[in-house]
Amino acid sequence: MKLLKKISALLESKKKGRGSFSVFAEKMKQEPCYRASQLGFGAGKKTFLEKLKDRIRQRKPAGIVKTDRRREGANRRRFLLLSLVSTVTLLGVYLVLAGPLEGYLENCHYFQIRKIEISGCRVTTPAVLKKFAEINYQMNMLTLDPEVIQQRLQDHPWISLAKIRRIWPDELAVSVNEYSPEALVVQGKEKGFYYLDKSGKIFAPVVQGMALDFPVVTGLDTVEESEGKKEVLARAMSFLRLAQRNNPNLPAQNVSEIHLTGEGEMILYLVKHPFPIYFGEGDIKRKYYQLCKVLEVLYQKKKGGALIQKVAYIRMDYQENKVLVAQSSTG
Questions:
Q1: Parallel, antiparallel, or unpaired for β 159-167 and 171-178?
Q2: Would you say residue 89 lies in a domain?
Q3: Full strand arrangement of the beta sheet holding 171-178
């Protein structure tokens, strides 16, 4: 009986025009909508065969890979060959045009030097430096070499540093730093005088008409090794730097001579007093201030004159922290 009821209900639904899936459609209207991929069928999920086909498409055959590599190698060789040909061509063009181009630049009057300014001269003069470094108004701004001019100027005995600056289109600015003499040194077979700077560098010979009012360093030729000469000169210049502080008992202008022995010791002579002052080798600063105190005592006047008039010699290296002042036999 139940089966007959279901069949009759189905026939009645067909008569009313509803399809065979009308019950399912009604249910779908009532339920929320889902994507095909969420329901497990349709475009969102691929079969095993579809996945396999996709993998096959992504793979390149070995023959195609080899062909691509061959093409890349051929393109690389073609690029290198083209680069080589271009380089050779440009080099050839340069060699052909270099001579005429250089001649044109040299004769280009627009870049010919019309003004030369040299600053920093104290002992030297701009005219002397121009001649020495071969700087002239026939030079061309495009073809001159600033480094060559700089080196020529620094080869001058009085020039410690030179700077060259081009001011386009036709000006040349030169600035120089000269050595500053602090003492004279006697050296060479002819026992000539040379200037010393504050670092102990011997830089220029003394010529007629130049300043001579400096302390004189003697005995340098008795020091054999070049390193030894640098060391004893450094000690002598260290003493002179201390003297430039112008202590009233030992100012720089009161230093006449610094004699260097072959053993590297230093002997000092003052302008107004001919007796030697033996400094020894090192500890110049301590000995300098000790000597200032000793001279302060010796300059004091007693009956019959100042004590310094009776001094035969002074030894600053007598004993540690002790000074020996020897008197002459006539004192």
A1: antiparallel
A2: no
A3: 115-119, 171-178, 159-167
End-of-domain residue from the set 178, 200, 231: 178
Do 285 and 227 share a domain, yes or no?
yes
| Separation of CA 84 from chain center | 37
Of the candidates 319, 264, 257, 323, the one whose C-alpha atom is nearest the C-alpha of residue 296 is 323
Which domain does 161 fall in, by range?
Answer: 111-178
What spatial distance separates the first Cα and last Cα of the chain, rounded to whole Å? 166
Q: Which residue has the tokens 């500890």?
A: 283
The residue among 213, 202, 317, 330 whose CA lies nearest residue 271 is 213
Look at 63-72, 99-108, 248-257 and tell me which has the smallest mean pLDDT.
99-108
pLDDT average, residue stretch 250-269? 93
Q: Is residue 1 part of a domain?
A: no
Whole-angstrom Cα distance, residue 266 to residue 268?
7
* pLDDT value at residue 81: 79
Of 193 and 34, more confident:
193
Is residue 222 scored above 60 in pLDDT? yes
pTM comes to 0.65
Q: Which residues pair with residue 167 across a beta bridge?
A: 171
